[in-house]
């Protein structure tokens, strides 16, 4: 019953998506508002249907209905409830099902929020694109990745989800964040294509696209950070990034989306980079699909890529169609995408954004090359190789350095042209911070040039970004006698989009400092300890007290009690563990003691406990300075995205009035209600004002609802 | 900008930067490739196998394991029925490491003929479906392991 319900819901959703796609396009072309409206309804119904399908699967997982193929694959009686629920995304079919749900949710929300706000044919075309992407994923669920297949005879029990995925709570957090980020990139893509198809290439699509990109980018940032954290907490080698194809797959769209969030400002202010911005949005979407193809087709095997099948061909076909279609649409509008402005001076903010985009593109290309090269080598030369982490580090560290530096330069430089005296004044504090940190590093005995420069640039950029908060706040304090914190809050509140960006910068800079310090000054020691024996290590005393074992429903846990103390300080207990899930490879759970200045990380590697002999354990102890700032920085990046997206009561009223402002540049009447919006859309071939609604400098920096 | 002459200069400079980047990347890639090999393939490579990053798959030979817990020193032999390679590593044996088990090791073959491994992975399949009856021959089996290994 559950099986039929889930499958039927997907089948209906697939049909509706195809119907909606055709209805939206036909509605716009023939001026039929009712058809457009029906496509809109299809997106809402699809969200309901995918909700039913996902709840059906969760129900089947919890009820342990092993007659359903996906449950038989990842379920087991011994698995605890929470892990049973999250095993929805622990293997291929379930994760595509979850993907479909998230996509249906995004589609319905984006259509709902924009059906009135944006008149004309842009939204119907965007709706058609989102439904088209949806149809592809529903098709996967109906054919190659059907999670609702019948298993006969019904097995009595299943193997449980992949041990790596059920070993840590971050696995309940990382995948949903990743899907929210990945799938969210569909919305900006749809609006970009919608703008191209409708010919509505003014600021309307930019506004919608930018906000949705920030949403998806924020989730993706948090997802990448959570993935790094998970690696650190589970894999037991003290690292958090290995340039694994799966990690690269999530990182590449983040890079291009970051580039877009910067370059779009150049278009808003100066009317430049139009084709470039559209290309970045399209590239970001394609990279999410490519990433899914790489990780889900099993073509490059790695931690996450534990499935294989024919699904790869579907993805390849889809990528080819999207690429060809996007390029054709882009080429068709090239005449209307000429730049309206040009660069005035080398030392201006737009130049920094340009260089930033070049660097981010080079970064993406490097990661892409390193990720795809093994496929090329195998296909062309028949040689199996992998690209070592040193390649990625050597190629990308200089790019990262330059980006950190630019993060300090960009906020300080004004648009268009800079006044030299003003520049000098604004760069004094950041430059002083740079010198102080470099000098301090040298005095403390640091001799690694890259690390010293990284610290120096990070300090420079931190000072510059913090200065953007402090300077105007101090002005307020002097002018109105406000309390400094209140003044800061009001400064941020007055321009959330900009300050959200600066908060994100601060987060990235903290991450950069954490990564530079923890990778350069990581110290590792492997040692075998007898019971009671002490390891003296980097000012710590680690004493092996006891070896123990514990039976849990789904696993057997072996752990060691290691007493840790600073010289002369109080003692606490670290418990590195090994979790054995049935006959699978055991999973380590390192014990981590985080402090602001450094982490102590202990992994249990081996033990012996023979009858009559003193037990021994072999442990790996690692000390990594400033590591915790990577996670703190990651959370601050997410906070930055949230600040720039925070809705504003006052501005919402402003947004409601906005159509009137746009309307005077448009030949169609202003439409306010849903039905009328559809009617407005029916003016299909509406010639839309291009470049007529230039945003003034005061409105350009402000956030408007998506 | 905008004028044809400056545009041409920009194109030339841009092209030169791209070309330099491509060359830089090519050498960067070439010097950082890790080759996926079986013991027989390593032996067939002869001289050129020395000091090259290699990911090696095979079976731990019976009676070859020596583990010195106090000095964290592990030695064993990886074989594929035809050829044997001596492996040494300064890490503890991973859980479930034992004679006769399939492993993937990463490291370099030194001129002394010993494979210095930085990473030893026990290949215990985490695919739950039973192995097919038409079990692949050893060479193919080890080739498959190379892809499944997770550094």
Description:
The complex is a heterodimer of chains A (706) and B (151). Chain A has 706 residues and is of the alpha+beta class. Among the domains of chain A are: 392-494, no CATH class; 523-628, Tick-borne Encephalitis virus Glycoprotein, domain 1 (Sandwich). Chain A contains 22 helices and eleven strands. Chain A has helices at residues 2-30, 33-62, 69-74, 81-86, 92-114, 122-142, 174-184, 186-198, 203-234, 245-270, 274-296, 311-332, 349-381, 389-412, 420-443, 449-480, 484-494, 496-520, 628-645, 649-663, 674-681, 697-700; strands spanning 385-387, 523-530, 534-537, 540-552, 555-566, 571-574, 577-580, 587-589, 591-594, 598-608, 616-625. In chain A, the strands form two sheets. In chain A, strands 3, 4, 5, 6, 7 and 8 form a six-stranded antiparallel beta sheet that branches. In chain A, strands 2-11-10-9 form a four-stranded antiparallel beta sheet, covered by helices on one side. In chain A, helix 1 runs antiparallel to helix 6 (122-142) and helix 10 runs antiparallel to helix 13 (349-381). Chain A is globular and about 90 Å long. Chain A starts with a helix and ends in a 6-residue tail after the last helix. With 151 residues, chain B is an alpha+beta fold. Chain B has two domains: 1-32; 35-148, Nucleic acid-binding proteins (OB fold (Dihydrolipoamide Acetyltransferase, E2P), Beta Barrel), CATH 2.40.50. Chain B contains three helices and seven strands. A five-stranded mixed beta barrel of chain B has the order 2-4-5-7-6. The longest helix of chain B has 27 residues, at 4-30. Chain B starts with a helix and ends with a helix. The A-B interface holds A 73, 159, 162-164, 242, 244, 301-303, 306, 342-343, 362, 366, 369-370, 373, 377, 383-388, 390-391, 394-395, 526-528, 578, 580, 583-586, 605-606, 608, 616, 618, 620 and B 1-2, 21, 24-25, 28-29, 31-36, 53, 55, 69-70, 72, 90-96, 122, 124, 126-128, 143, 146-151.
